[in-house]
Amino acid sequence: MAGDYAVIALYIAGMIGVGWFGLRLAKTKSDYLVAGRRLGWFMYSGTMSAVVLGGASTVGGVKLGYTYGISGAWLVIAIGVGILVLHTLFARRLVKLRVYTVGEMLDLRYGGSTSAISGVVMWGYTLMLTVTSTLAFATIFKVLFTVPSWAGIAIGGSIVVLYSVLGGMWSITLTDIVQFVIKTIGILLILLPVSIVSAGGFDGMAARLDESYFELTAIGGDTIFTYFLIYSFGLLIGQDIWQRVFTARTPGIATGGGVISGVYCLVYGLAGALIGTAAKALYPNLASAQDAFATIVEDQLPAGIRGLVLAAALSAMMSTASGALIACSTVSTSDLLSKLGLKKAVNEVARNRVTTLVLGLVAIGIAMIVDDVVNALTIAYDILVGGLLVAIIGGLAWKRGTRQGALASMVVGTVVVITFMFVDGVEANSPIYWGLGSSLAVYLVVSFLTPRTSDEILTVWTRRLNGSAVAEEEEAKLAASKS
Predict the structure, then answer these.
(1) Fewer CB within 10 Å: N-end or C-end of the chain?
(2) CA 372 to CA 23: how far, in whole Å?
(3) Which residues pair with 39 in a beta bridge?
């Protein structure tokens, strides 16, 4: 394992070093939260791919492939479809708004006083998403150091918190690009072909496995539909995703880079399912499908290369964990703390650093208690989609939607989702069905029963969608340079 230790040590040192470099770039609130809104298409597509393909997509994707075969790819495919829809339909408008959070967009569209409720829901989602990827660290460090799960979570989580606190979105963006490259090499170019060859190729896998492992719908039509309902829609409205959209230098960069990222996700999803299928052919009696990724890496790869692939898995987990953590911190400072009557901080970057540190430690603590990465992700997305999807998409697409309708849909949708999780269980499909249905019904009824949004509010909203905020920022920069 000496070679593996060396590779992982270099990787960890590199992440901390890049985080330290990001400290020098994060001088303003815009730098810390959205990388100064300056990313080009390569950095944008790389960091977008990194943030959406985390521990659940990597370790969890291989787990689903081990359990269901190639149909286990549907979870990550649904994520890729969500990225494609977001960037083809909405990204241009989101970049022009020049906001920092989903809650700020809702306040702008509906006329204020919605971000407190949306912020609570988004805070819960981003925190649980941070927990999801932090939890997955246990799988990697268990293989490397034979340490208990809590220690692996503490090691990986501490690294993420450190570089996220230092440079905020700049550190996260720079580390994401490194992680994107490592992940592509480790998962797609090394582990995928090695796994298939070790299992005897497709013919060898077919000879050892049931035919259902090669059926696209073996995981179940209801499950596939639910994946699209939760993850595709969830990717349309998640703060962690929107915050990456806000980093694009121009609307065109956001659209083009996002489409590239969406296609990459589709390829990544199929690769994870095939690796899991190969693991099933090689190790049909694993005690837990969750161990499929670590087992095939440990047994089939030589030292050094094994360390690189484990670093690739760490990259997937760290990129999502750091992206969710900075999103949770942004929601906390922009949508929640400000609503508690706290005065605006003299040094907003320092306040965001402290908030990020506290939330990172909380996420590490929760991850030591939760024991299933896919279930944790399901909880996060169920609450997000059931509580906020209707109000957000309604605000972007339907002028008749009102603030009262948005508030009512958020409260009712969230309560119904949580209620059905307790009644039917986290893995049931009913929470998202009932939550989303009730949220839509309440939004429509209350919006029709309440006065239309004022022309003054809609005029400001339309001007922002047309790029007035971008023009105002450019004028301010020009004036500052002249003075």
Answers:
(1) C
(2) 34
(3) 248
Mean pLDDT, residues 224-235: 88
Q: At 459, is the secondary structure helix, strand, or coil?
A: helix
d(CA 327, CA 34): 10
248 forms bridges with which residues in the sheet? 39
Residue 358 belongs to some domain of the structure = yes
Cβ neighbour number for residue 222 with a 10 Å cutoff: 10
Q: Tell me how many domains the chain contains.
A: 1
Q: Using CA atoms, how far apart are residues 227 and 381, in angstroms rounded to an integer?
A: 10
Express each pLDDT in 111-155 by its tens digit.
877 777 888 889 988 998 888 778 778 777 776 777 888 888 998
Q: How many angstroms separate the CA atoms of 465 and 395, rounded?
A: 12
SS3 146: coil
For the stretch 430-478, pLDDT in tens is 898 999 999 999 999 999 999 999 999 999 999 988 877 666 665 555 5
Residue 213 CA to residue 216 CA, distance in Å, equals 8
Q: How many residues does the chain have?
A: 483
Domain range for 90: 1-372
Q: Is residue 412 part of a domain?
A: no
In this predicted model, which residue has the larger pLDDT, 10 or 341?
10
What does DSSP assign to residue 35? Answer: G
Taking the CA of residue 29 as centre, how many other CA atoms within 13 Å lie in the half-sphere pointing to its CB?
Answer: 14
Q: How far apart are CA 243 and CA 52, in angstroms?
A: 12
Query: What CATH code is carried by the domain that includes residue 152?
Result: 1.20.1730.10
